[in-house]
Write a structure and sequence with these properties.
Elements: E1 2-6, H1 9-24, E2 34-38, H2 45-51, H3 54-59, E3 65-69, E4 71-73, H4 83-90, H5 112-127, E5 140-143, E6 168-171, E7 180-183, H6 185-188, E8 193-198, H7 204-211, E9 229-235, H8 240-245
Parallel strand pairs: 1-9, 2-3, 2-5, 5-8, 8-9
Antiparallel strand pairs: 4-7, 6-7
Bound molecules: 6-phosphogluconic acid.
Amino acid sequence: MEILIERDLEAVSAKAAQLFWMLSEKYKRSSSRYAVALSGGETPKRLYQLLASARGRKDIPWNKVHIFMVDERFVPPDHPDSNFRLIQENLLQSISLPVENIHRMRTDCSSANICAKNYEAAMMEFFKTYDAAILPRFDLMILGIGEDGHTASLFPGSSALSDREHLVAAVRKKNIRHQRITMTLPVLNNARNILFIATGERKSFVLNKVVMNRQKRLPASLVNPENGKCHFFLDRDAAGEILHHSPAE
Ligand code: 6PG
């Protein structure tokens, strides 16, 4: 596990953009595709804007990049709460990515369950993993964390959290405004790189429980790619509790 502590959201986002770019380097001269999965939420907005900046547009081999979505709310893509809308407005509309490289979690089916099944089928098609026992392997997944320890749309105690059969699941939960569609833990844990980004003091308590104690009831603690790397890029406020509990040098 790599933990990087930066000054603020801007610095965290810059380091995250650098990791995205560094991992994309090897695809410049290869015929392989760079498969990434993006989350919604407030925190990654600045990262997406930096990826879409002049530097990102120049340095990243966008024609090799395939963008998937970690999770989505079951709302139309132009809804204010849509993750696709967020990714579109902060990243996609500023880069020229072939349409076939954008793998939107569609929400125009009759139920969130059917949408989840369709996205699973689309992932299997892309990764050519027609046998359910073979998991897709993303090069990079960007994840956030909620104060309750959720990540993606995997909430504490939800059935999607213990789903080991599906790649994508629908989530219905009291107290969340919209139904969700989310990639499941087996997919997250098969990624080559997981990058958690979190900022602000509100996240400090839960981050200490996730990073230092690996508390199993917190979904983010269950993200632990066996054959991959897990990076936590935090600002000083979010890392407050971790720093407080770390032994002084
Ligand atoms: C989403 C997410 C979710 C998010 C966390 C943190 O679609 O909202 O994928 O897991 O990353 O809730 O959200 P913030 O970045 O807004 O704090």
